[in-house]
Design a protein that fits this description.
Helix content: 25-40%
Oligomer: single chain
Number of strands: 11
CATH class: Alpha Beta
Distance between the termini: 5 Å
CATH superfamily: P-loop containing nucleotide triphosphate hydrolases
Bound molecules: adenosine-5'-triphosphate
């Protein structure tokens, strides 16, 4: 794939966790390109490296070697302040554990990325409320995370990842706590974002109900990407062609 028009370019990414008494190679020479306008899903067994890979892609974890470019920018060589600003503006992340701030209500949680990017609080909360309405939580704006169900908290986390209109959205199991219909609504909303030509989405999922939303599905095993399938026509791309 030509580097023009790429949202993400991962080349030879290696990540080893060193816990003192043992070393775990979570990513072993991973190569993956994601085009602008693409919704890429990552699948594979537990422990194969999916969360590690999206954390590197989102710039929240540094790889040990290899390069990862986001919209042509190599985050690992950026000064840390520039990296923080770049990430705050361009990346939305839905964590597996949601990571909502417990003392802030739903609208306040969702407004955090806007406030970080310099928007006034009242305006940020108005905008956050509109996105919460889109995910079906217009009635729960002032609820604290502890007053919400798991599925509702997950939708707050998704609204927070979308609210500042980032160019890259990275989601770790975004539909795991949602029923079929809500999962479908949330995926349709995420897909709408991915369809914008200067944006991209990467979603880690075990949820077969949402595979049909993907443009391509990359399958991982034991720190490697073992195949990439184009879901529109079922074509399996060899790894050389996927690059
Ligand atoms: N902070 C850490 N310290 C040490 N080892 C880690 C750490 N995080 C992940 N690992 C190990 O790295 C490997 C990859 O983990 P990762 O969380 O990326 O897998 P995953 O495919 O996302 O798994 P799951 O589907 O269960 O979320 C696993 O063997 C895991 O135990």
């Amino acid at each position: 794939m030509n580097a023009d028009g790429l949202a993400v370019r991962c080349q030879n990414i290696v990540k080893i966790y060193d816990t003192g008494d043992q070393k775990v190679t979570a990513l072993d020479q991973v190569n993956l390109d994601i085009a602008m306008g693409e919704l890429m899903m990552l699948v594979g067994p537990s422990g194969c490296g999916k969360t590690t890979l999206i954390s590197v892609i989102a710039g929240i974890l540094d790889q040990d070697s290899g390069s990862c470019e986001l919209f042509g920018e190599n985050l690992i060589t950026m000064p840390s302040n520039d990296k923080l600003n770049f990430r705050a503006k361009n990346v939305g992340f839905v964590f597996q554990a949601f990571n909502l701030l417990p003392s802030l209500n739903a609208a306040e949680n969702v407004s955090v990325p806007l406030v970080i990017n310099g928007m006034k609080r009242a305006e940020a909360e108005r905008k956050a409320s509109r996105v919460l309405e889109q995910v079906g939580l217009g009635e729960r704006l002032t609820s604290l995370p502890a007053q919400l169900s798991g599925g509702q908290q997950q939708r707050v986390a998704i609204a927070r990842a979308l609210v500042h209109n980032p160019k890259l959205i990275v989601c770790d199991e975004p539909t795991s706590a949602l029923d079929h219909e809500t999962g479908h609504t949330v995926m349709a909303l995420l897909k709408d974002v991915a369809l914008q030509k200067d944006r991209a989405l990467v979603i880690v999922t075990h949820d077969a109900r949402v595979f049909n939303f993907a443009d391509r599905i990359a399958e991982m095993d034991d720190g490697h990407i073992i195949k990439v399938v184009d879901s529109a026509n079922g074509t399996q791309t060899s790894l050389k062609e996927a690059l």
